[in-house]
Specification:
By secondary structure, this protein is of the alpha/beta class. The protein has helices spanning 73-84, 90-106, 122-127, 147-160, 178-185, 200-208, 212-219, 232-237, 256-265, 275-282, 288-291, 313-323, 329-336, 338-343, and strands spanning 3-11, 14-16, 19-23, 29-34, 42-50, 52-57, 109-116, 132-139, 166-170, 192-196, 246-250, 269-273, 298-300, 361-365, 379-382.
Amino acid sequence: MPLLSANHIYSPEGLLTDHVLEVDAYGLVQALRPRQGAEVTEHHKGILCPGLINAHCHLELSHLRGQMQRGTGMTGFVQELWAKRNLLSPADQAEAAAAVMEEMWWGGTAAVGDICNSALTAGPKRAEARLYTHSFLELLGLDARRVPDILAQGEALTRDFQGLSHSLTLHAPYSVSPALRDAFYARPQGRLSIHLLESEGERRFFAHGDGPMETFLSTFNLPRLRFPQPDPIAYICEGLAPAQPVIWVHNTEMMAAEATQVATGFPQAWFCLCPLSNDFLHGREPKLPVFLPWKDRLCLGTDSLASTDSPHVWDEALRVQALAPTLKTHDLLRMLTTQGAAALGMAGELGIFAPGTRPGVLLIQGQEEVEGPLSPQARLRRLF
């Protein structure tokens, strides 16, 4: 049975030295323990780390890799998405998603929180057993008359994901009518993942009812309404149970007081950052100092390959490190592993070397100074 050692081994509490990781031939963890004279099978120069957690992605858009224009903003992006999304057949779209899932796994990803608007990825997820998934089945709609139909369509979609980890969720404050919000929150909830404050236009839309989002709705003759609250956070949080597990995604325009409001009001809330996607769409990125007081509530995602070039959450971590130089290597590894797993409801199963689990084993090479920031030269290699 392989007995692995390295300069350092990740644990949620810190990077361990003089420890060994015992796994079987299939990567099932037997023990993480002090070395104490044990005869090591393999010693590695670097850091042993569990597989990474991509807490937010859109696998069903994988076929749009390299097809979208940069810098169009949210409304321009959605317009282009509608024009290009179904140019390929559903079979080809599913094949693209399956290929990206395999690429993710070889790149060190152990699990993904995937946003779904259709059953397109259900088949690839059943076929790719190595990659754990939680599918967030997204509901949206501004026409109050359609609420029963939207909820029924969501329930029908859950049947397509039977046997896979999944839950229904809302899309974003600006795409959900008060009637849909209230009807949804009145139902028993699973884990939620909701886009929040991705653009300044979202804040303006709530405060003044105008801007690029209003123009978009007018262009496509979509229902327009004035929301009962003047800001997105107050609106989407009204009626949400304080104990509800929820991932707030993007948070690009979030301010410090708002982060404190969300973190203290919802103790099971997580902030998921996807800075490379935000830069691609808006030329803006999250204000990292806003989240540093809540760094133990951060996780990372890649968003979609329609809005970023890489499916690897490691690349997002390197960007977060560049935006917040005071973060340490261990801080980033926690976001990539233990915290991401907790955000997806997989705490104790993934993101940690716990006996009886199969979290994956990665080797991080090129990180010479572990007490400092994550190095841009650091690279991953999958061992199990």
